[in-house]
Amino acid sequence: MANKIEALTLVLQKLQFDSKTIKESFQKRFQIQKYIYLLQEWKGYNWRYGYNVYMSAPYSPSLTKDVYQIISTGLINNTEGELDETFIKDLNAVKDLATDDEQLEALTTLFYIAKSFIWATKDPQKLEDFAKSRFQTVKPFISKDVRDCAWKIISEKKMLGKWTSSKRYGDHRD
Fold first, then answer.
1. How confident is the model at residue 125 (pLDDT cuts 50, 70, 90)?
2. Parallel, antiparallel, or unpaired for β 57-59 and 52-54?
3. 55 shares its domain with 23
4. Class of residue 112 by CB neighbours under 10 A (exposed 0-12, middle 13-18, buried 19+)
5. Which residue in 6, 59, 84, 157 has its CB near the most CB atoms, within 10 A?
6. Domain with 41 in it
7. Is 108 within the bounds of a domain?
8. Is residue 174 part of a domain?
């Protein structure tokens, strides 16, 4: 892969998102933001996009800029290449995490909050309680059932695994 823009273009192609759909569909732009966030923060692909919590969960202005560059320059129709099989597997895993956009919003927001505050405690229950409480503050319109389902996915998929390793906390015992 020559660069991030080419890689992102191939991801958009793999997702079967065309320029018109991206321009006209908030839902598709929303999904792009969340899928790339999870690929970067959960699966470890170094996209180097900075994220903050915005209206619809983690959002990267620089990712939006790159997506619009791709569609305005026609790269989405004129880029050839293939994604690595492992990457495709990871992309599919990310796409399969949530059943709808509300769950995707809950999942990515809760993951963002937990990952951002993991330094505050080594106790998984305290982290869960804090993340859920903070989530209700920023997303009060999302039901507790959806929130709890999102936390269950985070736990079952061990999404916080690399962020909770003992080495991260300075414990280098084997």
1. very high
2. antiparallel
3. yes
4. buried
5. 59
6. 4-95
7. yes
8. no
60 and 128 housed in the same domain = no
- Residue-level length of the chain: 174
Q: Are the C-beta atoms of 104 and 32 separated by less than 8 Å? A: no
Residues 6 or more apart whose Cβ sits within 8 Å of residue 109:
53, 57, 58, 135, 138, 139
Residue pLDDT, tens place only, 37-53? 999 999 999 999 999 88
* 77 and 116 part of one domain: no
Residue 109: both structure tokens together: 């927001």
**What is the torsion angle, in degrees rounded to the nearest 10, for the CA atoms of residue 157, residue 160, residue 162 and residue 166?**
-120
Domain boundary among 73, 95, 117: 95
Rounded Cα distance between 120 and 103, Å, is: 26
How many CA atoms lie less than 13 Å away from 18 in the CB half-sphere? Answer: 3
Contacts of 77 (CB under 8 A, 6+ apart): 18, 19
Q: What is the pLDDT of residues 146-168, one digit of tens each?
A: 999 999 999 999 999 876 664 44
Q: Please tell me whether residues 16 and 81 are part of one structural domain.
A: yes
Listed in sequence order, the DSSP H helices in 42-100 are 61-72, 75-78, 85-95
